[in-house]
Design goal:
Layout lengths: L9 E4 L3 E5 L5 E5 L1 H10 L5 E7 L4 H9 L2 E2 L3 E3 L6 E8 L2 E7 L2 H5 L17 E4 L8 H11 L3 E4 L11 H9 L2 E5 H8 L4 H9 L5 E5 L5 E5 L2 E5 L12 H16 L2 H16 L8 H12 L4 E3 L22
Parallel strand pairs: 1-4, 1-9, 2-7, 4-5, 4-6, 9-10, 10-11, 11-12
Antiparallel strand pairs: 2-3, 7-8, 12-13, 13-14, 14-15
Helix pairs in contact: 1-8, 1-9, 8-9, 9-10
Length: 324
């Protein structure tokens, strides 16, 4: 078993599933937001752990994760079967997911923060892709407040609305790094220029904003500036997991030295390595070599200073998840 250091660089708090493709030929591979975020993080960091529930049938897949440099010690076995997702692409790169057996079965396999074993909970940074699952957020926010652990939130699209809930504002206010795609950003803060968009998002609380724009690359920003990052020179075979891999790699790189544009370059390489094939890479060494080669094709351009973030909205005292 790959064992993460006493304090892993990144703890991924999201799910791993088995993605089923109808083919031809029909096949099944590891998937899920948490899995792909961990794959991305492992292209940068040596210590990556992932926590969620899996079924007893997951045991053969642990070896795949370990070859990719992902610690499996924080996976909790619960029941006989790991959730599946049937993946189809009815139009171009538009992904359609059918949850098997159903969405409730997927939700039941989430872990709550106190369930994650040590040393995983002592990671240097947390990646979270989670909505307002009842009871989930408060222990996480308490932990990051007390320990100073940086928190990345890859915000779910359904939470991105013009008038976000108090729960969403509370989490944004505690988020260090926000990862969001362009469509979600438009829904949350309105259609603006890239510089205005990242400024508006930073005004909600995050110190760092990573605006993912698919084939147009990304725009990243912190208090010192904003940068436009080109896409890598890659042919897309399967876009599954690209955004999650980008986010995981960005966090793993950023937590080392807080170099935002350099982290975005590393993230772009990791995402490109994920989407140029179907399914995960063979192993971590192969993934790192390919991600580095693709990152070398990426360019960075500083953007003019935009409007500075104004004071963020004050969330209510409602605890996230208490009313949902």
């Amino acid at each position: 078993m790959v064992t993460a250091p006493a304090e892993p660089d990144v703890l991924v708090i999201s799910r791993v599933v088995l993605d089923s493709f109808e083919g031809p030929p029909p096949h099944e591979v590891l998937g899920g937001s948490g899995f792909w975020a961990a794959v991305g993080a492992a292209t940068v960091a040596d210590g990556v752990a992932l926590t969620c529930r899996v079924g007893e049938d997951f045991e053969p897949h642990r070896r795949t994760m370990e070859r990719l440099g992902i610690d499996t010690g924080a996976l909790l076995v619960d029941g006989p079967t790991t959730p599946r997702t049937l993946i189809t692409y009815p139009v171009g790169e538009h992904r359609h997911e059918e949850w098997l057996p159903d969405w409730a079965g997927h939700v039941a396999m989430r872990t709550m923060h106190p369930e994650g074993p040590e040393p995983a909970r002592s990671a240097r940074a947390y990646y979270v892709f989670r909505d307002h699952h009842p009871g989930f957020w408060q222990p996480v926010l308490d932990h990051v407040r007390v320990t100073g652990t940086p928190l990345m939130w890859e915000i779910p699209g359904r939470l991105c609305v013009p008038e976000p809930s108090s729960e969403t504002l509370t989490v944004l206010a505690a988020t260090d790094v926000l990862s969001i795609n362009a469509e979600e950003a438009d829904a949350l803060v309105g259609p603006l220029s890239p510089v205005e968009t990242v400024a508006a998002l930073r005004a909600l609380g995050p110190d760092v904003v990573a605006l993912r724009r698919g084939g147009a690359g990304s725009v990243v920003a912190d208090a010192t500036g904003a940068w436009e990052v080109s896409p890598a020179d890659v042919t897309v075979v399967d876009p599954t997991g690209g955004g999650n891999a980008w986010s995981g790699a960005f966090l793993a790189a950023w937590v080392r030295d807080h170099d935002v544009p350099a982290a975005a370059v590393a993230a772009t390489g990791a995402a490109a390595a994920a989407i140029e094939r179907t399914g995960p890479p063979v192993d971590r060494r192969t993934a790192r070599q390919r991600a580095a080669a693709l990152a070398a094709t990426v360019t960075v351009r500083p953007l003019p200073s935009g409007p500075q973030p104004q004071s963020q909205p004050q969330p209510s005292t409602t605890r996230p998840g208490d009313t949902r």
